[in-house]
């Protein structure tokens, strides 16, 4: 059973060792993400994470997986579960970013283990909803961690180049995440999100499918979802949102 969801961005800039020159500029989103995952830990000792990927990176990653951020500039090693002793020197460096970020956030929150489902960032909304419904039927008490960024096209600093639609898109996403508006999240346009570089679209729609599956058609539990936005901004031209959802 999933009663708590933390929705966070997945930029490597959350990891201090990777951005030593801009720690002050990244502190607000980092602190919000850490607050969200500590809150998530309070509801469950194990996590299932959902993040975006493509091609061969998609799939299920079990808790024994471990890796390094060396490809992002520093050999910061992470794992999906507590390990006895040091991480072996042959730790894989090519795990997809959502798996690495889950490992880093897991350690920051002090959670025993996490599994990761990497979904295709281009998945159709119907497929995302199907995955979400499957998660909603989970009998195990787990915390759901959802990773993904907003548009990469905010202003002149944007890595994807500026696009005037980016602000409106992320404002709508932020409102939907804060209010657990599963209809608004489910209606995000796949093509527009791709054009704006919003990798979070598919994971957010998975979360919406999960929340919808618990909100209706369950005669034993008619509790609703309450949301709270902890951070929303685009400090480096990319939309980052941190929110928490709880069934109440």
From TrEMBL:
Its protein name is Catalytic LigB subunit of aromatic ring-opening dioxygenase
Per the UniProt record, the source organism is Haloechinothrix aidingensis
């Amino acid at each position: 059973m999933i009663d708590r969801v933390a929705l966070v961005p997945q930029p490597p800039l959350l990891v201090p060792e990777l951005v030593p020159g801009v720690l002050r500029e990244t502190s607000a989103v980092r602190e919000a993400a850490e607050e969200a995952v500590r809150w998530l830990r309070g509801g469950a000792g194990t996590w299932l994470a959902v993040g975006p990927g493509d091609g061969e990176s998609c799939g299920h990653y079990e808790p024994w997986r471990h890796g390094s951020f060396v490809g992002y500039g520093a050999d910061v090693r992470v794992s999906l579960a507590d390990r006895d002793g040091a991480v072996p020197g042959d730790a894989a460096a090519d795990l997809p970013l959502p798996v690495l970020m889950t490992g880093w956030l897991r350690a920051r929150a002090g959670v025993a283990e996490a599994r990761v489902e990497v979904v295709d960032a281009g998945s159709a909304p119907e497929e995302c909803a199907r995955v979400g419904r499957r998660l909603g039927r989970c009998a195990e008490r787990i915390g759901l961690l959802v990773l993904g960024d907003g548009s990469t096209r905010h202003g002149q600093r944007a890595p994807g180049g500026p696009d005037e639609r980016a602000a409106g898109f992320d404002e709508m996403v932020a409102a939907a995440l804060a209010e657990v508006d599963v209809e608004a999240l489910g209606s995000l346009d796949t093509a527009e999100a791709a054009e704006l570089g919003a990798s979070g679209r598919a994971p957010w729609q998975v979360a919406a499918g999960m929340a919808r599956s618990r909100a209706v058609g369950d005669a034993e539990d008619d509790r609703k979802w309450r949301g709270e936005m902890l951070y929303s901004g685009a400090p480096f031209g990319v939309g980052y949102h941190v929110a928490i959802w709880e069934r109440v």
